[in-house]
Amino acid sequence: MLSIEPVTPGPLPRSAILNTEPTERSDAARNRELLLDAAEALVREQGADAVTMDAVAKRAGVGKGTVFRRFGSRSGLMHALLDQSEKKLQAAYMFGPPPLGPGAPPVERLVAFGRARLNGIEVEGDVIREASGGADRYSGAPYNVTKTHVSLLLRQAEAEGNIWLLADTLMAAIDAGLVLHQTRVLGYTLEQIGDYWESLVRRVTARTAQ
């Protein structure tokens, strides 16, 4: 029986990906970026537990009230940090240089995508744990924009099977929570996980290379 898949949309325009929030004044946008950069630095240096409204305000050199006015709560800050992380990766794979960005063969772009995702896992994994990590994130825009990108590359590489399910399966291999468990508990390195991601991509697209 033939499987029926959703219609895969074409690449989204830059504005649809990067401008998911109402237009901000330039100074407000700069302040927001300053606060999120401060929060990201804290996660990288001390883990997500260290990200408090006080700590972010001190790191950014502003009053705590500024952080509350901008994000409302610590949960709001964490969700905004996740959103920023997703947008940076989306901009890189849709508009950046190859092999992550356009211009490289689809298999090489998939390999580069996985390795780029792993590079941000230190921040993303802890923040997902703090922000929510619930199943609803798989129906949200950030996950599905990325899933569409992976699905398009799989189609271009002429991978077989249900492309949407295959994209989910591949992305599960570099899920932030799983990768943190693999590195912190099981002792694998990000390089080892990245190498496995590459071998997995090359296996599911092997027909293309024959």
UniProtKB/TrEMBL annotation:
One of its GO terms (molecular function) is DNA-binding transcription factor activity. This is TetR/AcrR family transcriptional regulator. It comes from the Bacteria. It comes from Nocardia uniformis. Residues 52-71 bind DNA. InterPro entries: Homeodomain-like_sf (IPR009057), HTH-type_TetR-like_transc_reg (IPR050109), HTH_TetR (IPR001647). Residues 1-26 are annotated as: Disordered. It holds the Pfam family TetR_N. Keywords: DNA-binding. Gene3D superfamilies: Tetracycline Repressor, domain 2. Residues 29-89 form the HTH tetR-type domain.
